Amino acid sequence: GLKHLPADAALGVRASTILTQQKETKLALHTIQKAVTLHANLSAALRSLAKAFLADGQKEPALNAYEKLIAEGHAEQADFAYAGYLAANLHFSVRSKAIFQQAETRFPEDESLARIEGWAFINLNDPRAAVAAFQRARSLLKPDTKPSADLLTGLSLSQWLNQKPEDAIATYRQLIEAGLAAKEPKDWADPKT
């Protein structure tokens, strides 16, 4: 069994990742907790701990692990995205906003973080902040890059929730046009698709 694993944090991270993929969440969690005990500042161990908590349905401990990773300065873009969205999902508005503010400072040109922040603000029922985040995401796109369906959907929804129906409809029309122009066209206005 896994109780015979050597006292090696990196090996614990790898074992926990495999166990999580195999849906052995309790064992993965036990394994990664041992790895974190061995090397509490190992960023890969904290990241795996957060993922193991999530796989086990323990959202708040997962958020705590992500926040520790962020506080130690070893967080990657995805860590901020998971943490901020998870905090919003748990209705921790102040924590979510703080995480996204840190993310914007660390990754100021990251469109995907701004877009995920927009969705987090929709979850927090803050449509004004959601519109601002989606508009910032759109402004971060390279000039030759078209906005994704996810960005246009979020922007349109947040505009609608912000009681700006004309803006929401105009953005939704852009979504329809983008869908029709895609390699595999999608008619977002057709309820059958």
Per DSSP E runs of 2 or more residues, the count of β-strands stands at: 0
Using only CA atoms, what is the Rg? 20 Å
Report how far apart the termini are: 49 Å
Overall geometry comes to elongated
Structural class: mainly alpha
**How many DSSP H or I helices?**
10
Residue stretches low in confidence (pLDDT < 50, at least 5 long) are none
Helix content: over 70%
Mean pLDDT: 86
Helix-strand pattern: HHHHHHHHHH
Largest sheet, strands/sense/barrel: none
Strand content: under 5%
Written description of the protein model:
The chain has 193 residues and is mainly α. The protein contains 10 helices and no strands. It has helices at 9-21, 25-38, 43-55, 59-71, 77-89, 93-106, 111-123, 127-139, 149-161, 165-181. The chain is elongated, with a radius of gyration of 20 Å. The mean pLDDT is 86.
TL;DR?
The protein has helices at residues 9-21, 25-38, 43-55, 59-71, 77-89, 93-106, 111-123, 127-139, 149-161, 165-181. It has 193 residues and is mainly α. α7 (111-123) packs antiparallel against α8.
List keywords for this structure.
193 residues, mainly alpha, 10 helices
List the helices and strands and how they pair.
Blueprint: H1 9-21, H2 25-38, H3 43-55, H4 59-71, H5 77-89, H6 93-106, H7 111-123, H8 127-139, H9 149-161, H10 165-181
Helix pairs in contact: 1-2, 1-3, 2-3, 3-4, 4-5, 5-6, 5-7, 6-7, 7-8, 7-9, 8-9, 9-10
